[in-house]
Write a structure and sequence with these properties.
The complex is a heterodimer of chains A (324) and B (319). Chain A has 324 residues and is mainly α. Chain A is built from twelve helices and two strands, in the order αααααααββααααα. Chain A has a two-stranded antiparallel ribbon with strand order 1-2. The longest helix of chain A is centred in the last third of the chain and has 38 residues. Chain B is α/β, with parallel strands linked by helices. Chain B folds into two domains: 183 residues, 3-Layer(aba) Sandwich (Rossmann fold), CATH 3.40.50.300; 66 residues, no CATH class. In chain B, strand 1 and strand 2 form a beta hairpin. Helices cover 30% and strands 23% of the residues of chain B. The chains are: A mainly alpha (324), B alpha/beta (319). At the A-B interface, helix 9 and helix 10 of A face helix 2, strand 6 and helix 3 of B. The complex binds adenosine-5'-diphosphate, iron/sulfur cluster and magnesium ion (MG). The site of magnesium ion has 3 residues of chain B, from helix 1.
Chain lengths: 324, 319
């Protein structure tokens, strides 16, 4: 178990190292932030001063060495634009993104699982087919377009829900959250729905496939032959089995949901990390980009870890560390 | 009479027409009796078993015929009524012990729920009863075993657990669908012994489904031979195995190594089981039967050549 944990940690470090290297080389190839950051009116001396200050007078490998040195001490550099520590900039915006992503994932389970169960139990019914057809839309419609449609319908035409920002927030553990106030919750609905559409379809299909696969198995037949009620058969015997793939996939999807929130945050002006990273990429603000990706890696690793633990809890046949 | 099937027809609706999995089965199981239902794979034995407890899922359905349980017609009873019988008065155990227990639920959960499905007792009482039943089927230290998961048991132990579950409510009838096929011979013998003993003690009737004649020989009182969705011959085990009258039965017996005389050639029934979607009219065995005549293209009627014996054949085997 400890070995397994250490191996995971080592893997994460390696990925971070590789990631930072790629970003350094990649951004260097794309363009020179100096051209964007320094106003054209600045004179030669001013220009040289800023270049030295940001470290661009040094060769790339030296810049990278400086970065690594700082990173080892927990310093991921200062934003070229905001002149604030990059890590702090991102962490400030992280709760907004997490709130959005977690809500979206919860929504995908709360909506997708019951729909999938239904479609799996009644695959030939009209409603069952309709659900499946809907899930194809959920997969294939582009997120930004759905986001705009949601705004058009629910915010502009009907005027039921607000379409931008986080609304009123309240503090919990020293962090501001939207879901704690009525107004904030109303602001959360549309972006979360937008972000969860893909995952709803995914969970729904997984659940349906799971039900279809599990129902004809001997142990379900045996459960029915014991005289159990259909409710017990479906919600205990079938559900426990399909929860295994659903939890795994949903857990892993949390990572990509955070990544995809970039689009949703832009459409709904949600002040999270996604919006920050888009702005930073536009101005080639390297420290922020690197720090963001580092955080994403850490997040992915943590999520995978938690999913593995959950998986073990759900499936007694699986034991960590490869022991059967 | 514990169970009686009268001309039961169970079909599966397929795109190419009705698949007649059970095509006119009549049989009976008396109180405390073990009836062996024998036939090749695909002959409709499992579907017969599921038809009895009303667990045929669409596209399958019981088209006609009757299932009489303790004299009561239970064909087409509403689902809640059938549920009261299942696992309570009629229990069923299945072929693959690896697959009959839910892998993600603890053994005690799967047993306690069975107790509570039919008896309104507390969790504690249910647990005690579940534990006692484990002891009865020969599982050592049932207390520790209760909270295990199925994968922590061997195949034989799992089948014992399944049998213990089937016996929880003292059913009048147990339908055992090839419960020992997936187990090795020694374990198979142990399981057979356990079931035989418990059934005899309690006067439980058994419908023992198998494709293995040697199992039937050792366990059953009577045997019904199934071919292509029909019972072609039935009678006491001694009579049918010693003096088979249907050519299919004779062929089956000839292909069992242990029952063959030493040195004699092992006989194989020529040809293949016809697909249930396109069976020959009349006697379904006639494409493989050496004694077949033109008459056999007609439906062979159900006859009683001897007391307590049924047959569907125009030209019975003569010995
Ligand atoms: N769910 C089903 N759908 C379609 N056909 C089925 C289904 N279950 C069984 N059958 C068909 O019914 C016939 C009898 O099957 P079965 O009773 O399982 O045979 P056995 O138990 O004797 O091996 C087979 O031809 C099989 O293909
Ligand atoms: S009815 Fe005819 S074909 Fe069928 S078993 Fe008897 S002799 Fe053979
Ligand atoms: Mg079978």
């Amino acid at each position: 178990m400890l070995l397994w944990f250490l191996r995971r940690l080592l893997q994460a470090m390696f990925v971070m190292l590789a990631m930072s290297l790629i970003v350094f080389i990649g951004l260097h190839a794309i363009g020179n932030p100096v051209d964007i950051l320094i106003s054209p009116e600045a004179d030669q001396a001013e220009r040289a001063r800023i270049i030295t200050q940001l470290g661009f007078d040094k060769p790339l490998w030296q810049q990278y060495a400086y970065f690594l040195q700082g990173a080892l001490h927990g310093d991921l550099g200062r934003s070229f634009v905001f002149n604030e520590p990059a890590l702090q900039l991102i962490l400030q915006r992280m709760p907004a993104t997490l709130e959005l992503a977690v809500t979206a994932v919860l929504l995908s389970v709360l909506v997708g699982l019951p729909l999938g169960l239904f479609a799996g139990l009644y695959p030939n019914s009209f409603a069952g087919r309709a659900v499946m057809a809907g899930s194809i839309l959920g997969f294939s419609l582009p997120g930004f377009w759905v986001g705009l449609m949601l705004i058009m319908v629910f915010a502009v035409s009907l005027g039921w829900l607000p379409s931008s920002g986080r609304g009123t927030t309240a503090a919990l553990f020293g962090v501001q959250w939207s879901f704690l106030t009525r107004d904030g919750l109303a602001h959360l609905v549309l972006p979360a729905l937008n972000l969860s559409l893909f995952n709803i379809s995914l969970v729904l299909r997984l659940a349906r496939a799971g039900v279809r696969e599990t129902m004809p198995l001997d142990y379900i037949r045996f459960a029915r032959a014991k005289g159990l009620s259909p409710t017990r058969v479906v919600f205990v015997h079938v559900l426990r089995n399909i929860l295994i793939p659903v939890v795994t996939v949903v857990g892993l999807e949390l990572g990509s949901t955070i990544a995809f929130s970039v689009v949703t945050e832009s459409v709904f002006a949600w002040p999270g990390m996604g919006k920050l990273i888009i702005d930073s990429i536009n101005v080639l603000d390297r420290p922020v980009i690197v720090a963001y990706l580092m955080i994403v890696v850490v997040m992915f690793v943590t999520i995978n870890l938690v999913v593995d633990l959950l998986y073990t809890a759900l499936d007694p046949r699986v034991r960590l560390g490869g022991r059967a | 009479m514990t169970l009686e099937l009268r001309d039961l027809h169970t079909h599966f609706d397929t795109r190419v027409g009705a698949l007649r999995a059970v095509d006119g089965v009549s049989l009976s199981v008396r109180r405390g009796e073990v009836l062996g239902l024998v036939g090749e794979s695909g002959s409709g034995k499992s579907v017969t078993g599921f038809s009895i407890i009303g667990l045929v899922d669409p596209p399958g359905r019981i088209v006609s015929g009757q299932v009489l349980f303790q004299g009561r017609d239970i064909t087409g009873l509403p689902e809640p009524e059938l549920r009261k019988l299942r696992g309570n008065r009629i229990a069923m155990i299945f072929q693959d012990p690896m697959m009959t227990l839910n892998p993600v639920l603890r053994i005690d959960t799967q047993r306690i729920e069975t107790v509570r499905a039919h008896d309104n007792v507390s969790h504690v009482v249910a647990r005690t009863r579940a534990r006692d039943a484990l002891g009865q089927v020969g599982i050592p230290s049932p207390d520790e075993r209760l909270s295990s998961y199925p994968h922590q048991f061997s195949g034989g132990m799992r089948q014992r657990v399944a049998i213990a579950i089937a016996l929880l409510h003292n059913p009048a009838l147990i339908i055992a669908d090839e419960p020992t096929t997936a187990l090795d011979v020694t374990i198979q013998a142990q399981i057979l012994a356990v079931v035989q003993k418990l059934a005899a003690e309690r006067g439980t009737s058994l419908l023992w489904i198998t494709h293995d004649l040697s199992v039937v020989a050792g366990l059953a009182d009577r045997v019904a031979v199934m071919y292509a969705g029909r019972i072609v011959e039935s009678g006491s085990v001694d009579a049918v195995l010693d003096r088979p009258m249907h050519h299919y039965t004779a062929g089956l017996i000839g292909s069992v190594p242990s029952r063959n005389k030493r040195g004699a050639k092992l006989l194989q029934i020529p040809g293949m089981t016809p697909s249930p979607l396109d069976r020959p009219a009349g006697c379904a065995f006639r494409t493989r039967c050496s004694a077949a005549t033109e008459t056999c293209a007609q439906e062979p009627p159900l006859t009683m050549p001897e007391p307590d014996r049924t047959l569907r054949c125009f030209h019975p085997v003569r010995i």
